[in-house]
Amino acid sequence: MSDPMSPEAAQALVPALRATIREAATLALPFYQAGRQTGARVWSKSGGSPVTEADVAVDTFLKVRLSALLPRAAWLSEETSDDALRLKADLVWIVDPIDGTRAFMSGHPDWSIAVALLAAGQPVLGFVHAPVTDTFYEAAAGAGATRNGQPIGVSEQGAIEGARVTGPKPMLDRLARGATHDGVRPDFVTIERIPSLALRVVRVAEGSVDVGLVSPNARDWDLAGADLILREAGGSVCDLQGRPTTYNRPDPVHGELAAVSHGLRDAVVAAMGTR
Known about the structure:
With 275 residues, this protein is an alpha+beta fold.
């Protein structure tokens, strides 16, 4: 292995990475039709999940451009065959060319392009770009998180009561049951489920959502970039025992998770542990 990347070297990549992701969005946007079905060709992958020609075009473009930007980095993405070489690499690009493909296909605005760079197994750069609203979330390890260049941080909400929560209904129901005391269920605000997991996480980072719940089978590419943004904003993506998420394992699939501020983590973990 070569020397791990310094924070300064990672931050030096930010302008080129931002420009590359913005250019990638121009490949997807012509296929997006607000409120209507996409005109893109659609296939079903093994397992039944859809992929469009826009996913493939963005993935191909980013693999070429990011590999040129950092040639020694390995690659893990939703639309590229996995290569075990990444497990021995000190630097790994983790990419979801379109996070929220079904939203993209149906004309819903909440889809994103998500990119992370891992160094020694930890995300050191994280980008989540929502092309429809031209919203850019980014973070470099140790340098804070921003939305469109402005610093962001998690909310100061310290209790499940009154919290703004989003995620799958079975997990929302579990949170309510687990936070019930003396027969009184907590009165939290349910926010419509955000189809892009990356956007679900960064909205916790920006403080517009307090708790983002994630059902099993999320992948590294859904989470790694957004997780760094949330870490830099005062929270994390953790499992339901409160442990931080780890990336670039042999199987990049995760169990149930919660995106939450440090101030709410213990309360959410305690409530979600109640069946």
